[in-house]
Amino acid sequence: MNIIKQLLPIKSGFGGAKNHCRASLSSLFHSSPATTVEVHSPEQEVVIALGSNVGDRLNNFNKALKLINNSGIHITRHGCLYETAPAYVTEQPRFLNSAVRAATKLGPNELLGALKKIEKDMGRTAGVRYGPRPIDLDILFYGKYRVHSDILTVPHEKIWERPFVMAPLIDLLGSDVDNDTVACWHSSATNSAGLFKSWDNLGGESLMGKEELIRVLPIGKSFLHWAEKTYVMGILNLTPDSFSDGGKFQSVEAAVSQVRSMISEGADIVDIGAQSTRPMASRLSPQEELDRLIPVLEAVVDMPEMDGKFISVDTFYSQVASEAVRNGAHLVNDVSAGQLDPSMYKVVADLEVPYIGMHMRGDPCTMQSNENLQYGDVCKEVASELYSQIRDAELSGIPAWRIITDPGIGFAKRTEHNLDILMGLPNIRSEIAKRSLALSHAPMLIGPSRKKFLGEICSRPDATDRDPATIASVTAGVMGGANIVRVHNVRGNVDAVRLCDAMLKRRRSIV
Q: Biological process (GO) annotations (predicted)?
């Protein structure tokens, strides 16, 4: 078989990338006696689709990602996670679908062989085509090249007809084209305007939330459908010096009573913090934090009222995060987005739980310094800095589908900055989308509850008098795209988000 017929560069008509999509084959490939094609240098950027609908689908994904990374295929980006209706053979369980971008020196047939071995090792056997499977791994793109052989066709020929493939593929891109290889992928699309237009022609974002295609965030043994419902996170501070309720819930009995109250009022998540992050708060050691946290966490986990609810641990220490998850916490809420503990990303990646990364400059002692309060366009700068941090988290092994973003209202922000953020949540998403659509789609959390800027605006020096202003700020945030709200007063804010959700649902129905 002639090598040039087997592997040809994609012809580009997208974004002025025509010249970049032509590559010399002679420097990249050689032919073995069996006429296979091997790639030696440089690394090629590839896209691999994942699907599973047999057994523990999420565990299948987690295992597959590890095996991919251990097979000479370095994952660099993750799409969102989708729960989808089966296609072609419809009488089978629902699928989880996603996709990853990766770098590899494996040739196309070597790559295919590595993926088929992973499928086999995970229990996939020959069966009905398009039928049930524990894991399905397909090569969507291989560098800038088209591959045509008896066993492999790339780009994958069915990309353009499958929303469950196109959606996570689009997630792997930014609205800005970041390199020549991506430009070539766009040029391969059925529409001359590129992948984005092909996705729009298939239905695009209008398909989201329907039975066939739902973005989900895995948490515990459940999935959050955050686009359909705003989740309320109730705050439980175990500290003596928190700005709003310091010292109220230090005993296990008082903490349990407060959790029971928040759950009865409609909280979906309880966020437990044993370290104050108010301005100028003194820092506890990880062990001191654990000594406060674990007795309460153990008691809360055993509460029958927590069935179907989730527990978040508010910490910037990886040791505390690890112990909390081991004792029943479902997600990690890190106000520093990994900046105060270099081990945090790797630890959370291994824990396989959702990770909330919040924007903050400095630490609680320095965040309100003049230096850390200097912004030009606050939404643009917060988006850029937060993206850099959650991108590092993703590169450390936390998939985009387990990341929640928080713009950090009240942290290294003046009053005007907090107002700009509340009004500018769509701008923050669009700035992140320039570099990663997956991370721009991540659930967004806001935490304006009882913050100082509300007191300044409303002349309420006592934090407990700021609940009406909190409800107003939560309403503005949810209408601007926030998916999770972190609050002290659960009852009033549950009503606010229910009204917001009803208005948003009504808006979608008439568009």
A: folic acid biosynthetic process; tetrahydrofolate biosynthetic process
pLDDT in tens, 421-444: 999 999 999 999 999 999 999 999
Asked whether the beta carbons of 41 and 163 are under 8 A apart, the reply is no
What local confidence, expressed as pLDDT, does residue 366 receive? 92
Q: Answer yes or no: do 388 and 253 share one domain.
A: yes
> Whole-model pTM?
0.92
| CB contact at 8 A, 24 and 33 | no
| Structural domains in the chain (count) | 2
Note the pLDDT of residue 15: 52
pLDDT at res. 87: 84
pLDDT beyond 50 at 330: yes
Average model confidence (pLDDT) across the chain: 90
Taking alpha carbons only, the member of 59, 424, 20, 322 closest to residue 185 is 20
| 153 shares its domain with 233 | no
Catalytically annotated residues: 451, 486
Place of tokens 């090598």: 3
Q: CA 357, CA 135: separation in Å to the nearest integer?
A: 30
> What single-letter amino acid sits at 488?
H
**481 and 369, same structural domain?**
yes
- Strand 145-148 and strand 153-154: pairing? antiparallel
Q: Are residues 476 and 363 in the same domain?
A: yes
User: Which CATH number characterizes residue 448's domain?
Assistant: 3.20.20.20
Place of tokens 């524990």: 134
Tell whether 211 and 296 lie within a shared domain: no
C-alpha atoms less than 13 angstroms from C-alpha of 202 in its C-beta half-sphere? 26
